[in-house]
Design a protein that fits this description.
By secondary structure, the protein is α/β, with parallel strands linked by helices. The chain contains 16 helices and 19 strands. The structure holds S-adenosyl-L-homocysteine.
Length: 462
């Protein structure tokens, strides 16, 4: 870290910029977001620079800077983009004690300008010490997209409210209050009612947190999606980030768990393939016990929380225990598998109905509406289908499905080891036996048209 990031207070500070064109204009626009007093030295200013100087209230001097002009300057930008003029200005400014930046000249600069995400008072500076400006811009673009526009407004209102929030004891409860404000209530109020109501909302939220019996936590049941962290919802990430305890299915992979706070407690539950499984009562008890210690519990489930995930059993147990809960949806394996093969789960003229089925129930193999599933054009996503492939194959053929019915098997969807196998009903059992890991069978769906024309059988399409 040769360049150390700091935040410089520019209230009432003097900043000088020297240059006539685009470089000077870019610096002027950036610095104009601060309260600094800006002086611009431009012997022959371009028209738009002149206009911008006027707009931003900068002092424009149509001559080169002299030593005496630079007294008390805190920051100086040599922005001619021309060696001799920049070097001269840099020398004068440095002699006057200013920190100098020479545009596009790392070596000649005392400080460099980072890529900035501005949600003041929340500001993020991204620097690469000149190594990779493109990377800095990509990170900035990513953050710009991720951080709500109103973040600065939220933070300003939050800052004013800090003394009031001290009514809550320091530690978990106060943290829960702020987390609630920044991730939930604040953005909601901002979107629905506007900034004027933030202060009112903060008071109401504080009341609620003060009234809440000390030490009663909550449980958020969250769909983690099929495995790729990029396929999680923003809300899922926020809840995970605020969680004290994460009770997760074994289906949820490491990169997603890594999004939780490092100090969070991780409790793996559920079953691994046909390995040992945690009884539902024990899962319910774990959620309730942790919530009763006052913890924010996230119950993290693979895919969507409401698809073959025993959601109701868990929410009913929480409700019976008097614990607050919520559900956050996620991308279910069927959606992710369809996306992986580039096919639509429904299609005009083919299927107006989509079935999400499991071939297993608590009793063993599940009996389904086989005649409907066997009809031409029917599409079904079979969960937990790998080990039941032979059973599904037998039942569908028995009910008259064509042996040539396309079936696509997708294992480990949205994970590095994703595997796609194009099959047909009469080969289903044999093909399924080649796969390992969680897999979904898309009955009635073959590969995308373009791919089908040159390949009957596509392996490892990913
Ligand atoms: N709630 C989950 C489903 C849980 S049941 C969801 O909405 O996706 C477990 C079954 O889901 C697995 O046996 C498999 O059929 C399917 N599944 C879940 N994640 C998967 C993944 N990443 N790839 C393939 N199948 C997956």
């Amino acid at each position: 870290m040769q360049h150390f990031p700091v935040y410089l207070d520019l209230a009432a500070a003097r900043v000088v910029i020297a240059g006539n064109g685009a470089f000077a204009l870019a610096k002027l626009r950036l610095l104009a977001r601060t309260p600094a007093r800006i002086t611009l030295f431009a012997p022959a200013p371009a028209r738009d620079l002149e206009v911008a100087a006027g707009e931003h209230g900068a002092t424009l001097l149509r001559r080169p800077a002299e030593a005496a002009d630079l007294d008390g300057a805190r920051l100086a930008y040599a922005a001619h983009g021309e060696g001799a003029a920049d070097a001269r200005f840099a020398r004068l400014a440095r002699a006057a004690g200013a920190l100098v930046n020479v545009v596009d000249d790392l070596e000649a600069s005392d400080h460099i300008t980072p890529a900035i995400v501005d949600r003041a008072p929340v500001t993020i500076a991204i620097g690469t010490e000149g190594a990779a400006p493109v990377l800095a811009r990509a990170i900035k673009a990513d953050l710009e997209e991720r951080l709500p526009q109103g973040l600065g407004t939220l933070a300003r209102a939050g800052k004013l409210f800090r003394p009031a929030a001290e009514a809550l004891p320091q530690g978990r409860r106060r943290r829960a209050f702020w987390s609630d404000y920044y991730t939930r209530s604040g953005p909601e109020v901002l979107a629905e009612a506007g900034a004027e109501l933030l202060d009112h909302a903060l008071h109401a939220l504080l009341e609620r947190h003060l009234r809440a019996e000390a030490g009663v936590g909550r449980v958020d049941l969250v769909g983690a999606g099929p495995g790729d962290p990029a396929l999680m919802t923003l809300k899922a990430r926020q809840l995970l980030d605020a969680a004290d305890v994460v009770i997760h299915d074994r289906l949820v992979p490491r990169p997603i768990l890594d999004l939780a706070r490092r100090e969070a407690l991780f409790v793996p539950v559920g079953k691994e393939g046909f390995g040992p499984s945690t009884p539902q009562d024990a899962i319910n008890a774990a959620m309730i016990d942790h919530a009763r210690t006052g913890a924010r519990v996230v119950r993290l489930k693979g895919g969507d929380a409401s698809v073959f995930a025993r959601l109701d059993e868990e929410t009913e147990a929480l409700a019976a225990a008097g614990i607050d809960w919520s559900v956050t949806p996620g991308i279910t394996a069927a959606s992710a598998a369809a996306a992986a093969i580039g096919r639509s789960l429904t299609r005009r003229g083919r299927n107006a109905e989509l079935r999400l089925v499991t071939a297993h129930d608590t009793q063993g193999f599940a009996e389904l509406d086989w005649p409907a599933l066997a009809r031409p054009g029917a599409v079904a996503a079979v969960y937990m289908g790998r080990t039941a492939a032979r059973f599904v194959q037998g039942r569908l053929m028995m009910h008259g499905a064509s042996p040539a019915t396309p079936v696509t098997l997708v294992a480990n969807v949205a994970r590095p080891d994703q595997r796609i196998l194009t099959s047909r009903l009469d080969r289903l059992a044999a093909d399924a036996a080649q796969l390992s890991g969680p897999a979904i069978l898309l009955v009635g769906l073959g590969p995308a048209q373009a791919a089908a024309s040159f390949s009957q059988r596509i392996e490892d399409m990913a």
